[in-house]
Each structure stands twice: as structure tokens, then as C-alpha cells.
Amino acid sequence: MIDPDVISRSNENALEHLKADYDALGEHLSRRRIDIEAIKAKVYDFGVAIPSWGVGTGGTRFARFPGGGEPRDIFDKMDDCGVIHQLTRGTPTVSLHIPWDRAPAGDLLSKAEEVGLGFDAMNSNTFQDQPDQNLSYKFGSLSHSDAATRAQAVEHNLSCIELGQSIGSKALTIWVGDGSNFPGQTNFAKQFERYLNSAKEIYAGLPADWRLLTEHKMYEPAFYSTVVQDWGSNYLIATELGEQAACLVDLGHHAPNVNIEMIVSRLIQFGKLGGFHFNDSKYGDDDLDSGSIDPYRLFLVFNELVDSENVEGFHPMHMLDQSHNVTDPIESLMSSATEVLRSYAQANLVDRNALSQAQDANDALTATNILKTAFRTDVEPILAMARLDQGGAIHPIAAYREAGYRQKVASERPEVSGAGGGIV
Amino acid sequence: MIDPDVISRSNENALEHLKADYDALGEHLSRRRIDIEAIKAKVYDFGVAIPSWGVGTGGTRFARFPGGGEPRDIFDKMDDCGVIHQLTRGTPTVSLHIPWDRAPAGDLLSKAEEVGLGFDAMNSNTFQDQPDQNLSYKFGSLSHSDAATRAQAVEHNLSCIELGQSIGSKALTIWVGDGSNFPGQTNFAKQFERYLNSAKEIYAGLPADWRLLTEHKMYEPAFYSTVVQDWGSNYLIATELGEQAACLVDLGHHAPNVNIEMIVSRLIQFGKLGGFHFNDSKYGDDDLDSGSIDPYRLFLVFNELVDSENVEGFHPMHMLDQSHNVTDPIESLMSSATEVLRSYAQANLVDRNALSQAQDANDALTATNILKTAFRTDVEPILAMARLDQGGAIHPIAAYREAGYRQKVASERPEVSGAGGGIV
Amino acid sequence: MIDPDVISRSNENALEHLKADYDALGEHLSRRRIDIEAIKAKVYDFGVAIPSWGVGTGGTRFARFPGGGEPRDIFDKMDDCGVIHQLTRGTPTVSLHIPWDRAPAGDLLSKAEEVGLGFDAMNSNTFQDQPDQNLSYKFGSLSHSDAATRAQAVEHNLSCIELGQSIGSKALTIWVGDGSNFPGQTNFAKQFERYLNSAKEIYAGLPADWRLLTEHKMYEPAFYSTVVQDWGSNYLIATELGEQAACLVDLGHHAPNVNIEMIVSRLIQFGKLGGFHFNDSKYGDDDLDSGSIDPYRLFLVFNELVDSENVEGFHPMHMLDQSHNVTDPIESLMSSATEVLRSYAQANLVDRNALSQAQDANDALTATNILKTAFRTDVEPILAMARLDQGGAIHPIAAYREAGYRQKVASERPEVSGAGGGIV
Amino acid sequence: MIDPDVISRSNENALEHLKADYDALGEHLSRRRIDIEAIKAKVYDFGVAIPSWGVGTGGTRFARFPGGGEPRDIFDKMDDCGVIHQLTRGTPTVSLHIPWDRAPAGDLLSKAEEVGLGFDAMNSNTFQDQPDQNLSYKFGSLSHSDAATRAQAVEHNLSCIELGQSIGSKALTIWVGDGSNFPGQTNFAKQFERYLNSAKEIYAGLPADWRLLTEHKMYEPAFYSTVVQDWGSNYLIATELGEQAACLVDLGHHAPNVNIEMIVSRLIQFGKLGGFHFNDSKYGDDDLDSGSIDPYRLFLVFNELVDSENVEGFHPMHMLDQSHNVTDPIESLMSSATEVLRSYAQANLVDRNALSQAQDANDALTATNILKTAFRTDVEPILAMARLDQGGAIHPIAAYREAGYRQKVASERPEVSGAGGGIV
Lengths: 424, 424, 424, 424
Fold this sequence. Notes:
The structure is a homotetramer. Chain A starts with a helix and ends in a 12-residue tail after the last helix. In chain A, 62% of the residues are buried. In chain A, helix 4 (105-115) links the parallel strand 2 and strand 3. Chain A has a 6-stranded parallel β-sheet. In chain A, strands 1-2-3 form a 3-stranded parallel β-sheet, with helices on one face. Chain A is α/β, with parallel strands linked by helices. Chain A contains 15 helices and 11 strands. Chains A and B meet through helix 6, helix 7, helix 8, helix 9 and helix 11 of A and helix 6, helix 7, helix 8, helix 9 and helix 11 of B.
């Protein structure tokens, strides 16, 4: 963890400017009849989970260029996640990926307590073969044509639930790469039927207080068809399984030009939005930092979420899912968590009564300008003050660099080679 | 109609070559254990509907360049449709668009008998304002924020059913342009709710032997969001409405790169595929001639349809829906109907037992080559012989040109100006 | 024009809040070592042209829903453009479209003086047929296979230059819809050769102090191929023609996912960026309001422009080019001009020295956060104060509505029918 | 290599049917006034290079699932390539990738003679770090901000030329992954300038009888910008470098919906088309088997190539570049080479005089049907007979399976683990 004195010193230098900015914003918002303290309080309560794999440097199929101090195991990863939360105060949980992060439950719980984190959803992996695995997932897992391979994949998911129960997780997220690379390689209907049957077996093993989140993705690693290719198929799955099943939306998993915020709305409306993988993308599943490419799109997603905050039973899970290929992953995750919180704060500035009136009157320009006004408000002072209030850093990246954390772990953790990727 | 002597003369010249090609293909297929006569018999039975608006020259928002002899009304259009069926023998029905084609039922029936056609699905129009219309659809129709406007749109659809009943149609197809051009212009959930409620009112007026087909489209004329934007939303609609409701798939209405044949499969699997609008596209809803851009995609769609031919209760409707901007519409429609029939014939050549075996064995290359072998078989002799057997033309376009039909109607029908588009 | 008293009253009510916001922003920027007055001065000097056709309601190929008070001719249009500039002080010129706006030069100049506007680039139209036209552009204009049709199109462009010279314009913008709807319809190389030869004839008639801007577009109205389909072809044209020729970039004319700001950079680097058509899009050439869909993209384009402001000889032209289908066009154009100015102001906040250092050090996160910091600064007070300083409105849309301009012209100008589109 | 007796036996069984099909096709073509023997002779002369890396199983960033008998080094790879050419007679050369394939020139030449192959273009690799490498390519290679890193990358390319000269290669192909993942990470203009300067240093070391081919790609591994992102930038490079430089087109490296055959035409017209990487794609750079997704697009590319066959100095290089993730790579490469030859043969069936006439007359339907008629002709008998005539297999995949080659090498070559990708 970072030495609190380093954070304090960093904050001291920045405090005066922050106060001035915060006060000015407070006055401005009060002119818009918005209470800045109320917005800050909402930010306090909002958290986004860190994926354990996100703290390692990601790669592409061409290469991976590791940085210094790559985490060696789940305990190193949790140390890194602890630093992220220490500085940002916005990432209270970590999401494990099995088998990468498999460890004794007691050890995981001890480490979690040490670094001040809890556990978010469990993530299973049937898109890779493991050294000790009997049957290969080359041609699929939950939807494989071979019953024994499907059974193996189901069993793996059940074991993820088992571990998750022992560490306090309350959800299982399933993403599979099953699909095909050639027209005709698979029979679409039979493959989907097999997926559904496998998923039902997993669902049958779900504890009563758990949720099962399934994730759709248009393509990659399969390049002609993917068995859970879009929200339509994902909705069918969640409906077939039952009340505890819902859809997970990864912002980078859609076709070009698709209106993602409308998909978010539809899934909320029909009771099947379970959670998010936040990231950004320009081309495909680029897994870029949240808000780095199209920050307005992220805001529009949060506009839907905030608009439905009071829908009964609607408690979506929030997680980052990114691949950090050219940055320090800790820095990217701190920055990305901040972008998610920023969108949430901005979405809370929307004048929803005025918006409803403009919508009913078909006054499109007024309606859209209400959103734009909220979006272009610079809420950084709110985010920074919320961090400060909770013991974090006004400038998390600066404080992190001042603390020399990366250099420290680079000296403690041996260098790793550059092969392979391994990021969802 | 075309003078039968012209067709006969045209066929006489082509007959010898056709026979040689047909015999050679028959021998080749027999080596693949396929009976050419059985395939031809299937082609006999397959028909695709012509949209009444397709026989007029289409346009874009920039311009429309009419050709000679543009049809002036539904009766001219039915004359043109009659010629298409006379020469191709594959387009036995016409699909009306209301109010463009509104006319006394008796007159429509008389004309249909005269030209040898029946009536396919009725198409309503609430995406344009009509001169005698009380309330504007500028901001939507079935999902408009104003109840009276929604009621007007519902009423229009009910009137389409009424006319359809009197001329023997058995389906209503609904496509609306409702959506928004700005983030915030509409509330997605409320707008969809309003659409559903309006659609339920129409459904309540549906005769017991009718089907209600709803059509999804990603964008255009709305450019930020569209209320029925994809098959996911369309499926929700069809499910909410009831058993007589199903989805209509237009091949040009999807996001870039989307796997359409998989959507077809999903809708069949869940009992909600109602019909097709065939066309081709390279960019958006280009409404190009069927099979002109990506003929293999059309084949892959038919591969799904043929694979499910024996699914109980699965009887999708087939219609062309194209905009002919630079060709003689009659020629394009004859050519396009032929492409649809070609894909259907090719899909009937797939060795489905071998395909299933290859799929179960994950022998991807063998599986895909089974499809490719069917696709690359030149079935033109089968299509031509099927036309000839039924009194049509071996070479429909050549016969049509020899008959001078376009010149004839150009002399009878006054020239029209070039403004406006008006093609779905 | 709007009664100045209305503007004054509107401003009076808003002045106190503006001053508070402006002062607070000034202090904040001074902490970032930025002089707010210097930024405001840059905003004073920046103008964006209004396209004459933009003040009419646009449409799609399906329908056009006109609003009240549609302009009847170029003089009505210039009245509307005058109001836009009166209130925003950011749109000092209007860009004419011939033949739609053809009128005696003296009348145009008188009207321009009356409403306080100048004339930007001339726009030719060879994508539609005019009533008095000998040869049709159905199959192309500058690249038509027929020499006489090409000559007619060349002649039209030369006449646009002639009129432009007499009213003080200094540029001709050429956009053609030439292309094809079917593979094989045209020979790509021959068609492009013909385009180049026609363009050379126009270029030969260009006055020494004029520029020739050619505009590329991926598709529409042609749906298989377009003769000037992308910046690569456009660059070839500009290079073949000579020094006075350069490329015009319309933000909505590219393939999905394309990095437009990089195209902007390439064209600047190779001396061939001539100007812009600003708008926004989600799917294709949607012609939505600038900054309404992806405001960060607009900022990134301006980041390139500001970064190259001191490149010798680089003086790009700026114009809006939008289709206002569901809003009052005057309101949309005021709002859009403001968005363009906003991006320009934000791009002037980028700390370019720090950016260069971060780039050289491959510190990607610092570099991108420098851009984000500039982008998320709410510069509305600067824009509003710049308007106020120059006699415009603090809140242009509010002032416009208070003035009742639309109601006034609606009572003066007869209603028009809803047919047709006609927006570039 | 495969035992010739196995091939003979395989051919014996298929010969009768082939002769019948070939004779029937010959008669059919003679009715279209095409000499089947002339087409077959053209097929004899056409070859496509195999990339050395293509015979290994490919993967994605998520996983690689190796098959049995993976080649261990370039000599194993050349054995596999030899088998492909032995059976198909259409792949006379192999293209090396350095450093993966670095070996003593003499050993390479001996092996090439043994397996009956020559060497196509050399491929450099500066998109990965090698164990013995001083400076990392994490932030770029030829365009890196650091001069020493650029020099290292230049040096590597020069060493590729050196090795290539000693084994008879006549071209260097450069593809780099340089770009950025964040707006602002790089300065577009400076980065491109650095690329150009590095490329000029390589070009300066090019032997007089060599060509330098540069390859553009829209994205991946960089996900915000790529330094050679499209044919426009690639054309600028080839022009800046000089006469021996030209562009390489990989069919999967373009934005969605882009008309690739038109890019091919433009590059031919301006003398800068150097070669191809053939493959197919549905979403991004999927590297699927040639012709497996959109065979008509492959045909349309060859339609351009055949149309320009007689352009002086136009001798493009042809290579497959695919990633075989779920098939036996040898089978996929045989099948894909056949698809390339198929498109070439079909493009030779186009009636170019009739096509020109239809184009000049703007008879779009006739023009496109001329292409479709060529495309739908099943030329498999020509391809098979050409293989047979030259000692190959009538059914290459069947013969390959009968020979048990995969089982043989699987027993000789040790199993490899599943990590990593490594396919261009």
C-alpha cells in the first residue's frame, strides 16, 4: 500500500486549488438549483469493481509488452487493487478469474482484509485450455458438440460458485468464446440449444442469493459466428434460465454504430440488465480505458442508469474490463474508475423534470441540450473532494507516481517474458 | 402483358442450349446422388412476392431520376407485376402499400385476376404525412408522445387490415420510422411502451387467420435511435403481442458485419420468424437488387430456411423490397426474383446428412465445403427449365426487351417529374 | 432580424450569472496559467459559414416534414442566416448552392449588406436534374460516360464560379454523387479518369485567387461505388489538379470507425486540407447537429486544426452542413455553430508543450489526460461572453424564442408541402 | 512429402467423373465462345505464395489451440508447404518471416530444392520484441519517438533484405503495428514523418531488382490510431519512397463496408499496387480462409486484376495470409489457394467486350449480369484438371487425408503448448 504520508503531502499541495474550484462549482450548481453536497454524497456510495486480470499488462495476438513489477499471482494483484482503491476510494471490490486466481479461500479473505477490499462477481474461464484439463475447448465449451466437454465446462462453473461462496461473492459471470470460424461449421440452433442446456445446469447450482450474469459479444475469438452474439440472444438465455439470471453488457462487444444506451434501456425495461463491463472502443473489443474514446457515450449509458435508479429490484453490478497494453495498469484503472464516476456524477446533474417536459413536447433541441449541459459540467472538483473526504488522493496518478509504487514492486517482483495475451 | 408469341420465339432460340446444359447438370447432380427433377419441382413451388412500389423507379433524398413509363397507380403497377410473373413464373403475388395503393376492393380483385396475381401482405404507412391527415407523424406514429396521433396511426393500420380482408390478403406488415435524431429527444422506455400498446390495439383487430409482421431496422429515417432497432426489440414485440405476431427480417436493416443468417436461425428456433424482405446492401439500407452484392450471404440465409423447412408451423412469407434507381424496375425485379430462387435451389443441394456429421465431428473445413459445393453449382438450367415448363421465358430479360414492353407503356403513360423518393 | 431590445432584455436577465461563471472560470484558468481573455479573443475571430440550404427543414428519402415559415428563396434564407449571426456572432458568411440560390448578383449583395453577411464558398449541383436541363445526371455528371453530359456539368460549375466572382466568393466546392449501384456498372479507372479530366477543365477556369475544394463521400446516393469515395481518391484529385485545389472533409462521409482526425492530420501534412463540412453522425451521412452525437470527436478534429494553426498557407474553410429534420433549423444552426466554437475554444486550452513532452516520453496516460482536461473544461462562459461583447445573445435560443421570429415568418411565408428532401 | 502412389490412387477413383464434368463444362463454355483449354493454361501459370507462418495453428489474444504435428522450425514449415504445392500445384513459393524463419541461406536453399519451392517476399517483424533485442517496440518501431529504436528497426529490415538476396527473394514486405491506443498519445504528423524517414533508409538499401511493399491496416494491435492506417497513407508512402515501392493490400485490413476492389483499381491506375495478402473476414482482420465468407468479393478483386493484366509493368505479388485456428492449416491453405485460383479462373470468363459496351451504355443490369454469369460458372473441373495435368491431386484434401500426412508428422514432431498467437 501507499504510505499515507505521501498521499497527505500530495493532497496538501493541491488542496487550495481544489477548494476554490469546488466552491465555484458549488455556487454555479446552486444557480442551477443543484446541491453539490448531494451529488458528492452519491459519488461516495458508488463503486466499480476491478478485474483481477486488469492489473497485469495486456496484449494482443501479436505481442504483449510487459511492464515492470507485473503481479505474479492473485495476492500481488490484490495488492495492486488495494492501491487503486486507497487512492481513488471508488473501487471497493475485486472480481476474480478462475482458474487464474484460484487460491485457498482463507488466504483470499485474509488478503482482502489486509488491503481493504471485498469480492465482486466470480468469472469462469472455458475459453482456454489449462494444463491439467482432460478435454479441449478448441471447438467450444458450454455449447460443444461433445457431451463430456460440456459437462467439464459446467463442472468448472460450479466450482467457481463454490469458491465464490466461501469468499463472499454473490454472482457468477459467464463469458464463452464458443462459435465458429466458417459458415456451416456449426448448426446455429443446435449449438444454442446445447448452450442453454449447459447454462441451465449451472443455474441449478446457483445459491438462492446469487445472480448469474451472461455476457454477449459480437465476435472474437470466433470470427464467423458466436453463440451469444448480441443482447437478443443474451436476453433469450436470461429468460430461459430464470429470475436470478440477467445480462451483462460490455461496452465494446457490439456491432459498429449500435446504440448501446438503447440496449441498456431495453434490458432494464424487461428486467434483465444485470451488470456492466466498462471500457471504451473505437473498432472492436479494443478494451481501451473507459471514457477515453467517446466519453459522451459513457455518459449516455449512465443517463439511463440514473434514470432507472428507482426501478424496483434494479441493482446492476459495475466492473471495469480493460486491457492496458501501453500504460501502467494501475494508472489506467485509477483513471478509468474516475471516468466512470465522472459519468455517474454528470448523469446526476440532468434536470429530469425539464427533460421529461421537453420529450413530451417533442422539443428535441431543448431535450438534448439538457443532457449536454449536464455532460459539459466539469465535475472533477466533486470527484476530487469525494476522494479527499474518504482518505484518498486529490490527484491519484500524481500521488501514485510520487509514492514510487511501481518502482518498488518492480524491484520485488521478477521480470516476466512478453508472450501471450490473456485479457477478456 | 407480353405477347406469348414473343416469349415462344425467344425460347425457341435458347432451347437447344438450355437442354444441353440441363442434361449435363442432371448427369452431374446424379453423380452427387441428387435428382434434378426433384429440385426443379421445389422451384416450381417457391414464390416471392413483388412489392407494388418496386415497379416504380426509386430515389434517394438527393434526387429521383424516373424512367419512361412509370406506373401511375396501382393498376399500372399490377400490370407491371403481371409481366414479371408472366416471364419468371416465380412471383405469384403482389404486396400493397396503403394509402399509395388504396382502391376499391372489387377493382383490385378484377385486376389481379386479369394479370394472374394474388395479394400478399398489406403494408401500412405511418412514416409519411398524407394530404388529408389530421395529425403529423413528424415526431412518430405508433410511439408518438401524443395519444391522438397514436390512435390515428392505429386506425390507419386497422383500415389496412380491412381492405386486405376484402382482397384475400392474410397478413399485415408494420414498419415505422419512429425514433429520434438527438440523445435525449425521447425516453427509450416510454417510447417503446407506447409502441407496444399501439401494436396491441392493432393486434386486437387482427382476424384469426391473419399474421402480424413487424419489421426492425437499425436507422433511417431516424438517425440517433429507432424504436424497433433490431431483432431483439422485434422479438420482444412479437412475444408481447401473441401467437399471430412474428418478426420480419429485411436483409438491409442490420448493423455492419452482423451475422444475419444467425438471426434468422434464432427467430426460427424461438418460433418468431414471420417473413423476409429480400434485397442486398453494401453500406446501409441500400435496397439493392437481391444477390447483387453478396450472393453467398443470400445463400446462407436460404440454407437456414431450407434446413428448417420441416419445422412445424414454420411458413415464412417472402417478398422483395428494393429500390431501383438506375435500372428498369421490371428488369431488376425479374433478375432479383431469379436470384432468390437461385439461392433456394442451391440450398436444396446441400448434403445435410454429411453436413451434420461434419458438424458433430468439428470438421469445419468439410462442413463449409459442403455448403460451398452447393453454392457454386450453377443451377441456372434448373431455374430456366422451371420457367419454361410453366410458360415463362428461358431468358426473361431478353424476352422482355424483345417484347418492347417498356417502350409501349412509356408511350401510354405520361412522363413524371424527378422530385422525391418514397421507397421503403 | 431580431429586435435588439429583445436581445438586450434577454441578456440583462442572464448577465449576473454569466459574470459569476466567467469570473470563476477565469480564476480557474489562471491557475492553469491560461488567460481567459486571450481565449475569448480567439473566439471572436473564428467564424463558421452557414449553408443556405440549412435553414430549410431537411428530410429523408421517406419523407420531409416541413416546419412553419420555411424560406421560399435565397432572400428568405439570408434573412434566416442573418438572424443566426445576429444572435451568435459566429456565422459571418453564407454559402450558396446553385441553381437553388441563383439570383442577380446585385440583389444578393444588397441582401447580404442588409443582413450583415458575406459569401463563403459556392456549391454546384450536378446530382439532381433541373427542369431546364438538356441531359440527365441519372448515370453521373463529371464522370458520365457521355462527353456531352460531362461538358454540361463542367459548364454548370464554371457558371457557379462566374456568379461567385460577382458576389465576392473565393472558392468553389464540388460534390458529385457519381458512382454505381452494381458491381460492373462502371469501370472504376475509366470513370475516375473522366472525373479528373472534367475537374481539370473546371480548374482551368478558376480565378487566380480562388480555391477549388473537392469533397469525398463513402456512399449515397450511389450504393455500390462512389467516384470520390475517400480521402485517398480526394488527395489524388487535389494533387492532379494543382496548387489551388484541396480536399474538403465532411465529418459524416467516412466508413464506420474511421479515425477522422488522423485523416485531417494527413491532409494538413501534405498541404491538401481545404475545408470542412461540420455535422455529426451515428450511422452514415446522417447530417446531424455538430457535436450532438460525439462531441469529443469534434474536439479531436479541432485539436489538429489548432495544432497546425501556424502552418504556413494553412487557412481551411469552415462550414456547417446539416439536415434539420425535427428541429427549427435556425435553432439547430445556432446551437451547432456554438458547438463548433466550443470545440475550437477547448482546443485552445490544450497545454501543447506538456503534450509534446508526454508524447516524446510515450507517457500515453498523461498525454491523453491533457486533452481530456481541455475538453472537460466548460467554456460556455467564454462563448457567451464573446457573443455578448459583440452584440449577440447570452442565450441565443432563448432570445430567439422570446423574439417570436419563427411565428413571424410563419405568418409571412406560405406553408409548403412535405414532399422531397434536397439536403447535401 | 506425400507418396505419389497415394495421389495416383486417389486420382484414379475421381478421374471418370472429372472427365465428364470437364467435357460438359468445355461444351458449355464453347457455347459461350470460351476455350476451356485457354482458361486451364492460364490457371497453370498462376501461383500464390504460402506464408511460412500459415502452416502453424494460429490463435487469438485469448488462446491458441495447437493441433498435432505443429512445425517446429522453418524446415518443418517448408515440408508442409511442399505438400501443399505437391497436391495443388498452385503454390510454388514460400514467404519467410524474420526472425522466426532465420536460418543459414544454404540450408534454406537446399530445403527449397528438396521440396520443390522458391522464395517469395521477405517479411520483417518489428511488432514483437525478441529475446536478444536491445530496445523494445512497445511504443513503436519505424515511427518510434526514439531515434535509436527506429535505427534498430531499420537495421532489422536491412538484414531481411540481406538474407533474402542470398536465397533469391526479390521483395521485402513491411508491416508494422505502430500507432496509439489513446487520443493524444502520439502526434500524427510527427509519427508519420518518422515512419517515412525510416522507410527511406530501408529503401536506400534496396537492391535494384527488388520491390518494397508496404502494408496498410486500419487497426490492431493499435486501437486508436495506426500509422499506416489505409490505402491513402500507404499511397503517400509508396510515392515518397520511389519507383520500387508499392502498396500491399490485405483483404482484411479495411474499415467496415469499404469497397476494396475500387481501392485495387485506384492503386493500379496510379501505378502503386504491389501485391496482395489474400484471406477473408467478417468483422476485422479475422484472417479467415480466402473466399470462405464472401467469395464474390474475392472474384471482384480478381476482376480488377484480370482487367489490368496487360497494363505495362503491372506484376502484383500474390500471397495467402491467414490464421488457421480450428482447421488443419495444410488443409485450409490448400483449400484457400484453390479459392484464389477459382476466382482467377472465373475472372477470365468475363466477356470484357460486352462488359465495356454495357458500361458505356449505362446498362447496369446487363453489366452486372456479365460478372455474375462468370462468377456462377462452376470452374472446379478446370482447376482439378489443371492440378491433375501437373501431377497434383484431383481432390487435394481427400488425397492428403488418405496419405495420413498429419498423423505421420504428429508422431515425429513433439506436442507444443497452447499459449500465444503470433500470426500476422
